[in-house]
Structures are given as structure tokens and as C-alpha cells.
Amino acid sequence: xxxxxxxxxxxxxxxxxxxxxxxxxxxxxxxxxxxxxxxxxxxxxxxxxxxxxxxxxxxxxxxxxxxxxxxxxxxxxxxxxxxxxxxxxxxxxxxxxxxxxxxxxxxxxxxxxxxxxxxxxxxxxxxxxxxxxxxxxxxxxxxxxxxxxxxxxxxxxxxxxxxxxxxxxxxxxxxxxxxxxxxxxxxxxxxxxxxxxxxxxxxxxxxxxxxxxxxxxxxxxxxxxxxxxxxxxxxxxxxxxxxxxxxxxxxxxxxxxxxxxxxxxxxxxx
Length: 270
Description:
This protein is 23% helix and 31% strand. It is an alpha/beta fold and 270 residues long.
């Protein structure tokens, strides 16, 4: 199987050219012919409509040449629009998955899909991939689940680590979170608390809960591990407030280096 890396050309065994027409439309092309005896693994991010469009072009080329191919997506956009919010707004995840379902890949693997509905929308060819949080957790650490959803997603980790599960109270009129409280605390014996979740945007939830823990455990160390960091401003806030921050480059290669050198970026795009 040969690797076609649409995120990083330098890491791609299959070379390609990405050009633009005068109107800005992107087009991908391959200088070398494909060998039908070789299957292909395509790695990509889908953070924008343009990246999705380029992937459909790749699928068209591979299918016409009768190449068997598998697809690994490090980040899939629209996973937070996974239902009909109201009839004047789109069911965006369904729209994206409908496009992906037109392609003739054998399997589609998505790293830590934010919505559990993703697999249902993509069908039996879809295999969600877990990020290995466990390999980055200190054995002498307590896990912090920022909400019940994170606990349900990663509760297997609670078998081996002490943990805290937070509750969030929202203002029913504005939808904003007005209060954070500890809903459950189990066997938190160690001086390090590590937040884990699949995604960080602005970081408000993490920072609000961090404030609660710092008041309760003022002499402790606080870390956070998230798979998808989708907002550079949120990432900067995490680095300014946590002792250690671990993310992946699933969404973007920010190139950000905090002055206190407390950021670790795990490469999942190679």
C-alpha cells in the first residue's frame, strides 16, 4: 500500500501537484501513473469545503483508474452541527457525510470524531479511531473529565486513574455556562490533575473548571490533553494557564511555541 498524504507533500510517497485556476479553484494532479497492483492510503484533513473538494478530485482519479484505496481523516469538519438545530439551519454533518459516501474507498477512518452520529451517517465502511490518551498520561495523575460526555467517551480510563467529573450549569436564555461544579470525585490521591477531551475551541470550559480546581487544590500541577485544537486563541489560553499542554496536529500545524515551552504537539498526520 502506498501513502498519499494530502496534508504534507514531503511525507507522501505519491507525489502530486496542487495548482489553481485564475478564479481560485484548486486542482490536484499526479505527475506519475498509478500502478493498479498498488492500493493507496489517503491521509487528509477536512477543515474546509476546499479540502473536501480536493479529496473528491482524488477519489475521482483513483476510481477511474480502478485503484483500491482507504481513507484516513485526522479532522472532519461539521461534527458539532450533527443534528437539525432548527429548520432554517443546515444539518451540516449529514451534508459532509453524504459527499463522503459517494466515494468508492474501501474504508474510512476518522480520528476521534466529535459526534457519535458520524459512524451512523457514514455506514459500515467507517471505523472511528481513538487517540491514545493513555500513553501520555502520567501514572501519578488524576483525570479530569470536563463534562459527562467526556466521561462517557473515555470512562475506561477511570478504571486505572482517580478522576473528577464536572457538571456545567447553563443559562437557559443565553446558553452560556454560568457555573462549574464537581459532580464526582473518586480516589484523587496524586498532586497532578490532567484534563482530557477530544476537542478544544475557545477553552472557556477548561479555564472555568481549572479555576475551581486551583481553589480546591492550590499546590497541585494541572495538565491538559486534547486531540483536536481548533482555535489558536484557545490554545494560547491553555498554554498561559496550564502547566503542561498536549495536543495533536490533527486540525492544523500552528507552529506556536509558548515562551514557557509547555506545549507538546503529537504528529498524527504522517
